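Worked example 2:
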Amino acid sequence: MQPDAAHWLGLLQNQVSDHLGWLLRFPNHEDGGSLLPMVWDESEQGVLSPIALLKSPGWLRMLPPEQTCDRMLESLLESWLKPEQVGAVNGAEWLVPEVDRAGILLDRTQQMARKQQYVALLDGLCSQLETGQTWQLSYDAEYELQLLIGRLPDPASPQWVGIAPRVPVATPDRDPPIRWIATDRSNTDHSNNTDRSNTDRSNTEQNADPANPTESIDRAGQGSFTQPEAQPEAQPEAQPELQTYLQQAIEQLGEVQIYGYYGGGYGQLHRYSLVQAMAASPESAIEQLLLQAGFLTIGQFSGFATEHLAANELKQVEALQAELEKLSELRLYQFHFWNQEQVYVLGRLNATIWGGIALSSRFTYNP
């Protein structure tokens, strides 16, 4: 660690306490969160990006390659089908109530029909890929997501396509502890330079009334993963046949609902469907796919929510914010795991080192 980074980290540690993790908790995270100072040295850890942050602790990893595309899709199909066949997030049977109170569980005929649609979609995609990779995204054993990305056989203009299910998110999309201005490059309706701290995301999570269940909406290569900040990504030149095929297949497959935290008055249901993305490199395809799936938020940090704080608490949070605002190019990356929120607020210390905070916070399910 370079001397200036070590000095800054020591200063920030004086501002960070266990109590701050409690103050900066997300809604329905009654147990509070863990707040830690951190640095990222690009000379040792590579270029800072969402994908690099996910790979560093092992949350995102490429699964061993299969010899054939069919073998790869067999494993992928099992992972994608399990949540809707069981009827719950991650295929966790304990989440399904004894009585299907929301009336959302699929019968055997529906399950088989949808499986055939998945097989047809993936077979059609597999036939057009030159190479494919399966990636697993998982914070712990309670939730995992498998992504498929593949390269299309066009040597003159390499293109990568990705496909994955949406990510269900238990945390309500209200009263976030950190405010930001969106700078992501997704193809959703996220508008640049729009303050999204108190607005609905395109995939905002909602709770359902158990007595009158309503639908919740999900939020939304081994090479070097890089990310040009706050610039719209140039989309690859046309692959209209494949894009049209995937879009039509996804629309035909449609969506189903699955149970999340439903018991104990939480009443959470989630929409479950596939999303796609296309980009000029594998790293960009993964990032775009995570944006489309509602897993990733990229933004410019604009402050902490302080309206609910007492005077002595406000002083602590303002001191932390003042230290962070001394950094240049402040950015925010947020990962929306199903029941876990992971937030990084980072800014430049010098040409190769970033410093900031990492906030980890888990949804508190207490039926």
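Residues 108-126 form the longest helix (19 residues). The two ends are 45 Å apart (CA to CA).
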